[in-house]
Every structure is written in structure tokens, then in C-alpha cells.
Write a structure and sequence with these properties.
By secondary structure, this protein is α+β, with helices and mostly antiparallel strands. It has helices at residues 38-46, 71-88, 143-156, and strands at 8-11, 17-22, 25-30, 56-59, 62-65, 92-96, 112-116, 132-139, 161-166, 171-179, 182-190, 194-196, 203-205. It starts with 7 loop residues before the first strand and ends in a 6-residue tail after the last strand.
């Protein structure tokens, strides 16, 4: 069908739907997206298409922009890293804002990962779901993404435990027991509460993150 006059074309994120407004009529076109693999993602970096300064991650074959990290975000990551280290450093690998390999199409960069201990620090290969106990995302401007995009991704990969730290509400969403691509248990621990990990021996006073 030929279109003589197009007023606006809008692409909705994380979908394959283009909405085209033609004068007073609206048409919806479903277009197939081309997804890239992790290997192709790294080749794009090698040839300069992606620059070292680009803050991006690969989610289900799509390159997604990562939000800038503000001071409260940095502070919470640093505090939680210190608390984890006091208890877990000798028995687990604590990885901070490094990529993990979910599958051939996804390599997200969570804020904190608690994984099986590797004496080489995973210098030979990236951490995979089978090696992960806890994933943590600190959410200020990324709350929707962390719930709508990363939550199902991690559940499908059967990551045992996923935390979303809600900076604005000063609380933690704790997701556990992944089954059939979904987390079956969700708890919200407020600032006055205490979080008990399900996958490792660790307890956290939520107030310690919001000093």
C-alpha cells in the first residue's frame, strides 16, 4: 500500500510494532526485528561500531542503552559490596557491574552478582546462570526496565534470587523460586525490615543501604 503523507512514525521500545499516523487514520504494522548474537555484539565493538565509552548491554538480541549512574546508585552498590564481602568473600565470587552470559542473545550487566567461587575470578569465561546465586539491580531511573525486561530474563534463566533495590522508596524487592520462566515468590522488604537470602547465608538490614 502506498502512503502519500505520513505525519508521524513511532517505534515502541521492546516490541516489533510501528504505529504510523496518516492524517486522521492509524495503521499498525508488525515488522520482524533482526536480533544479533553475543559474538556479533563483540565484533561490533572490535570494528568500532560500539565504542568503549558506550554504556550499553545486550538483551534478547537487542542493544539497550544503560542509564547514567548517579551518586545514590554508586553509594548503594559500594555499601552492599562491602557488606557482602564481609560475609561471603572467602566462599563466593562477588562481581560488580560486569557482564554475565545468559545465553547466545543476552549479556546484561547487573550491578552485583554473587556467584560460585572461582580462583581466577572468571578471567577465562564470563559468569553464567548455572554459577549465579544472587543478582542485584539498583533501580533509580531503571525501575520499569528492571521489572519488565530483566525480571523475566533472569527468571527464564532460572537465576535463584533477584533483588531490585528501589532507591526512591528505600526498599528491596526480593524474587525467588523461579519456575516455568517466572519467579513464584516475591517479597518487599522496607527500610525498617531485614532481608534474609534464600540462596546463600546472608542477612541484610535494609536501613544499612540508606544511610
Amino acid at each position: 500500500m502506498l502512503i502519500d503523507s505520513i505525519d508521524l512514525i513511532e517505534l515502541f521500545p521492546f516490541s516489533s510494532i510501528f504505529v504510523i499516523f496518516v492524517k486522521k487514520k492509524t495503521m499498525t504494522l508488525r515488522l520482524k526485528r533482526f536480533k544479533i548474537t553475543v559474538d556479533e555484539y563483540y565484533k561490533m565493538a572490535e570494528v568500532g561500531i560500539l565504542k568503549p565509552t558506550d554504556r550499553v548491554e545486550l538483551i534478547e538480541g537487542e542493544i539497550i542503552t544503560m542509564s547514567p549512574v548517579n551518586d545514590p546508585h554508586i553509594g548503594i552498590v559500594n555499601i552492599l559490596n562491602r557488606l557482602f564481602a564481609k560475609k561471603l568473600i572467602d566462599d563466593y565470587t562477588i562481581s560488580i557491574q560486569n557482564p554475565i552470559r545468559i545465553d547466545a542473545l543476552s549479556e546484561p550487566e547487573p550491578d552485583i552478582v554473587i556467584a560460585k567461587f572461582d580462583k581466577k575470578g572468571y578471567s577465562k569465561s564470563k559468569i553464567t546462570p548455572a554459577e549465579i546465586f544472587i543478582l542485584v539491580e539498583v533501580s533509580d531511573s531503571t525501575l520499569v526496565k528492571d521489572r519488565k525486561v530483566k525480571l523475566p530474563l533472569y527468571a527464564q534463566a532460572e537465576i535463584p534470587e533477584y533483588w531490585i533495590i528501589d532507591v526512591k522508596k528505600q526498599q528491596i524487592e526480593q524474587y525467588t523460586n523461579p519456575k516455568s520462566g517466572k519467579y513464584t515468590t516475591k517479597k518487599i522488604i522496607k527500610k525498617t525490615g531485614k532481608l534474609t537470602c534464600k540462596s546463600v547465608d546472608f542477612k541484610l538490614k535494609v536501613a544499612d543501604l540508606f544511610i
